[in-house]
Each structure stands twice: as structure tokens, then as C-alpha cells.
Known about the structure:
The structure holds 2 protein chains of 2 kinds. In chain A, about 55% of the residues lie in helices and about 20% in strands. By secondary structure, chain A is of the alpha+beta class. A two-stranded antiparallel ribbon of chain A has the order 1-2. Chain A starts with a strand and ends with a strand. Chain B is an alpha+beta fold. Chain B has a single domain (about 5-175), classed as Aminopeptidase (3-Layer(aba) Sandwich), CATH 3.40.630. In chain B, about 25% of the residues lie in helices and about 30% in strands. Chain B has helices spanning about 30-40, 40-45, 110-130, 145-150, 160-165; strands at about 5-15, 50-60, 65-80, 90-105, 135-140, 155, 170-175. A 7-stranded mixed beta sheet of chain B has the order 1-2-3-4-5-7-6. In chain B, helix 3 links the parallel strand 4 (about 90-105) and strand 5. Chains A and B meet through strand 2, helix 1, helix 2 and strand 3 of A and strand 1, strand 3, strand 4, helix 3 and strand 7 of B.
Amino acid sequence: MSVQTSFFGVTKLTGEDSKKFRRQVTYGRPNKLAAVSLARGQAILKQLQAKGSVATKIKK
Amino acid sequence: MATAAASQDVVLREIRPEDPVSGLSLGDPQFTPLKTFLKKHARRYHTECLAKTYVYVTQGEQEKIVAYVSLICSQIEVSSGLPEVKEYEYSDLPAVKVARLAVDSRNRGNDLGSKLVALATAIARNNVMPHVGCRFLVVDAKKDSVRFYEKCGFRLLDTPNNRKRSSPVMFLDLWKL
């Protein structure tokens, strides 16, 4: 079993790692936190595509 | 009497060739590759479409990058690794990879990192997946960042082997969003 990755390379999973990945993908349920993040990202992306930038304020 | 906390204007946009890329402080030597990537590679890779980088830049007299994310096309190869075991139906799965993510240590707690991951998720889900085929968003997370990515909706590949890696693989199934 192994996991091999690199910056430009692929993520290679074998043995137990590949079996677990397969199970997690097959039986994994939709993730509410991911849906929240996606909705937030879509709002940012919409502005970015319309204006080329998105302004915000942060604490100093 | 309460006083308003000082605030600073920042802008999110694609990195530009003229952007100043020094001055990012990450606070720990383990993050040096993130600084090096921004300094030496991010602008050229963006121009040459090897990796696309989105930055938060301060506004004012001197612009400065305070956070960035770099995205690349990638792939997850899944195989048994054992010749006697039948290979899985799909052995090569297309993905977008969060290749680099960094937030200046002086600007943490401002939610910039989670906004950049949210943007990456939306780009992969809205702009890539429906048009070219892409099933996953994947990241090699720093151990200390696993909880952060879980809050963004990523799942840890839950094996002892992966959990003990210095950068455990985490993924998000775009098709189930």
C-alpha cells in the first residue's frame, strides 16, 4: 500500500490506500461543509469573473 | 469607550507579472517552499498556464501579497498494486489540485485561507467539471492543516499509512456537491 504525490505529479494510491479511497468515494455522502464552501466560492467567483477582482477588508 | 478595530483593504485577483512577491511572512521554516514558489515560480507558471495563482493583495501605496492559492490539473491513480488482484474499473480519475496555499502569518484569522479554498472549489466545480470532466479537488495537506481542510469540506483518505504522512492526501468529491 502506498501514497505517492508531487507538485505537478499525480496522486498514486495502491493497496489499502486505494481500497479505502474507493470505499470513501463509493459510500461517502454529500458533505454539508463542502456545500457551504462551494456556495461561498461561487459568490466570490461570480464577482471575480464580472470585475476581475474582489475587494474586502481585513483586520490589521 | 469601544474603538473600531483598524482595518485594511485587500483585493482578490489573479497574480500579475508585476506583482511584488517578496515580504510574505509565514512564520515557520517548514513553509519555506511556499515562499520560494511565490517568489520564483508563481508568476511565470501563471503566465505559461502551468499553475494558476490567485492572490490577496493589500491596497495602498505599496501593494503586497498576503495570501495565495495555486491550482493545477492533476489526477488520482487508483490501483491495487498487486498483480493478482483485478484492477478497479476506473484507475485514472481527473482532479484539480490545490498545489499551494499560504496566508501571511500577520494576516491569519481573517478567513483568507478558507475564502481561497472556497474559490478553488467553485472554479473546479463550476468552470472545470462541467466542461472538461473533473471529479475531485485534491490536496496534500500539512498535518496541522487537516482540520482546516475538513472545515472546508475535504475528507481525509482515512488509512494509517496516509495519516502518518507529513502531507496526508485529502479530497473533495465534486460530483456529490
